[in-house]
Amino acid sequence: MKNHFLFLLLPILGQAQTPYFQQEAHYRIDVALDDSLHQIRGQWTMEYVNHSPDTLSYILIHLWANAFQDRSSAFARQKLRQNSLAFHFAPDSQRGGYQDLAFTAEATPLSWEPWEGHSDIIRLTLPEPLAPERRVSIATPFTLQIPASFSRLGHVGQSYQMTQWYPKPAVYDREGWHPMPYLEWGEYYSEFGSFDVRLTLPENYVAGATGKLESPEEVEFLKQKAAATEAYLNDPDKSPRHDPAFTRGTFPPSSAAMKTIRYTADNVHDFAWFADKRFRVQKGQVVQPSGAVTDTWVMFTDEEEDLWKDALSYVNRAVAFYSSLVGEYPYPHATAVQSALSAGGGMEYPMITVIGLSGNAQGLDEVITHEVGHNWFYGVLGFNERDHAWMDEGINSYYDHRYSRAYYPGSSLDTYIPAFLQGGSKLEAGEAAYLYLARQNRDQPPATSSNGFDIINYFIQSYEKPAFVLRYLEQYLGREGFDDAIQAFYQEWKFRHPAPADLRDFLIRKSGKNLDWLFEGFIYSNQRQDYAIRNARQVGEELEVELANRGTIAGPIQLNALSRDTQTLWSTWVEGFTGVKTVRIPAGPYQQLVLDPGHYTPDFQRRNNALRMNGWLRKTAPLRPGIWPTLENESFTQFFFQPAISWNAYDEFKFGLWIHNTTIPGPRLSYSLLPFYAFGSRALTGNAAFRYRWLPLSGPWRVIEGHLDGKQYGYEKNEAYAYRLSYRRVAPSVRLVFRDGESRMSEHTLAGGMAWVDQQTPRFGKGGIYEGKQNVTTRIQTAAYEGRNKNPLQASNWRIAWERSTLPGLNQSAVFHKGSLAFQISPAYRQDKRFHFRFFAGALLDKNPSRKGLSLLPNAWSLSGQGFSDYRFEESFIGRNQEDGLKAQQVHLQEGGMKFATGPAQRLGRSNTWILALNLHADLPFRFPLRLPAQAYFDLGYNGSQKGQTAIALEKPLLWSGGLSITALSQRIGLFFPLVSSENIRQTYAQNGASYWNKITFTLDLARLNLQNALERLDGGQ
After folding, report:
1. Rounded CA gap, 770 and 767, in Å?
2. Which of 377, 595, 620, 970 has its CA 20 to 30 A from that of 587?
3. Is 610 helix (H, G, I), strand (E, B) or coil?
4. Cβ count near 288 (within 10 Å)
5. pLDDT tens digits for 712-722?
6. Radius of gyration in angstroms for the set of CA atoms belonging to the chain, rounded to a whole number
7. Is this prediction's pTM over 0.85?
8. pLDDT tens digit sequence for 356-383
9. DSSP 36
């Protein structure tokens, strides 16, 4: 998961001086499938051999199928961390687990109890202590209720995926016991041994399994299936719809007659089987260099049949590829099965792999190759995937990437990103994935345990980053030297359990190199390597090149001197260093010096990796404009531009240009410029935003961001006096993101900033004569603490904010302090349905006399956010001060969050003192027509002071309303259709003569839509 010998007969170093040993487990299992009840029943027997130096009084046994019994298992909790609610809300009929267990040893009943509260691990007390080099035979009957397909073990209808289906002992090694509750990530660490398995099932099932098929009748049955499949695939008129046995989603009746098939396997640490009555079958073989023959099989249904017709060749090629590079495939067959899979695109087991839907031929080939490759890395080399997933997933990914480069030339990103979005970037998938997280300081070390990763880190740090740095090692050692080292390691450690220290020590011995940069740097930490070329000057017949390491990892780096047509004229590997180093190379007709032009190293910032030998700004890459955002390309200084149009009631139609430098991975300094020419106001308007990001590697802060935002727009016009008013807002701020906690299920930030709003206002003289415009300034300081809990069962967020402001039109020495609390929680009531509750409280914190007057303050609290109440000018409104019509029906869902819009004349729901609000909205339990994202909403608000609201009785401070909404982008865009409301809201609308259509409101929160932030939150992260 896409020969025994000790070195010089000495203990393996780095393992607390304990000599290496490994236990043995030999199984005899006899079970029958009841496909009407989705159960298997039978007998399990295990002979356990103690090769440790310790006497054992108990054995820890994994009962991993019990992970699917209820919501309390470690697996159930992990699914929540993975943002999946399917298992949590599954009915009891879809759950599963063991029944009828009764462990005995030599007919003596054994006592057992759950281990540390886990239902899927038990401590089995032995009848007498098991001394070194002694063995014990343990047996039990069992019934397994097969769960629905939530992970790996399961069924979809009468298609069965039987993995982790039998009791198995925890590994006992030089580190002690390794009890592991079942988890979707990090499935493997089991004792090597042998299997003798008998499966009884209806005779029209086709089964594929670990081990050699020992039943001659079943061998003949599969050959007949293969012949029938060959004839079918060669039939030009074939159609799976013509055969009722292969109609999608249906299963042919099960045969009343049963068959028993037997499999045996040696030197394996797991056994899996898959059965389906619809499987088509193909058979082939691979001849190994030694002359040994490996049988190959594929089994598939009609889903993606057009892809699977070529799958046998993929299995054959994968077996041959890995055998030639790593070591000869040691097992009798390699089989790929297309079946239901609820845990990734493919999953590996000894000799057999299960593959889900792939979408295209290359995707299917690459997934099959990756999973077949696991027979070497996890299968023969039995790594501890739970604690060291990078070893099997990372090393295997290195080889499957090498396979893809051999058979599918081109960028590894071609599968994921169209060429026009790659922008000619030299980034490969692994490097882009690494930088995507590292540039946000969200990357975890690959050595993190499987259960310690968040979702995106698990795939990037277990698979892509280790594969990337192993290719770095390959380039540094040379491919031949690298291949020799891995082949030798494979031969020394096959059918054993090597630990990371074993691999590290072996590679150091074999290569004779210091590899601290690889292991302590890239595997065990998230430190950075960031080399730069500072300068170059010719001294005699040599060129002195000054290099700097601005990072904290000192790995080797390749320095190349290029000609004008980018051909390499000189190349050398520079050993790793910290600080500054001068490298001397022969002088020559070089156009450019470049560090790591092949992108073999995880360099954190490549824009400082090149130096032109002539011209101005030799360290700055030439400008390259583009139309849409692309991947980062260090050969150019990238920026993008697109025409833009906009409109508001005061500037009217606006035409402009959006200029920005949004790339993936995101740059340290990002900007977005959106200048407009407004044809109504005949003025320049627009937005500008700059962000600079610091990424501390230690301390409390994960990210420190500095922001500078500005904008200028019209906000009012007067036909009678023929004037238009505009405002200008400048707001510097800083945002501090706390370092993630161990669970990585919550985020906390501190933010602070200032804003200056210069606002044009009309100036009137005696007799109300308009005399022109004047500027007044609002000064605002803010600070806020925000938190977010990402538990998908009841996600929540909160914000505590403080504000200090001086306001136009008032004594500028009068200072106002405001405080607010907002809390929102969104409990799920079904797998894809939620309730959303939001509470808001806001109050003016001081006793400024201005708030006691009859008039509302400009910074009064608002239960319903409308344009005229946005005194900070933070939001974007198409009709900020409109009295009526569609332009007056826009609301923003801040402060009280209510949805009515009664206009500035009444100012309903505003307060000089405090407000309370409760906003509820809920996903509808049924599908709305046209699949619109409709919700029901209800708002409740209490107004602490109604000064200035002359049209509304003071004894009615409570407001409420509810209806239906259609929203998108977390309610940043939405329509609200009121159905019920309180009397004071109804009266206010009646006084305004509003029809029902005038009561419909909308939100258009464009101010919070940020492309760079959106790209950095593709996984729902920061």
Report:
1. 9
2. 620
3. strand
4. 16
5. 999 999 998 99
6. 34
7. yes
8. 998 899 999 999 999 999 999 999 999 9
9. T
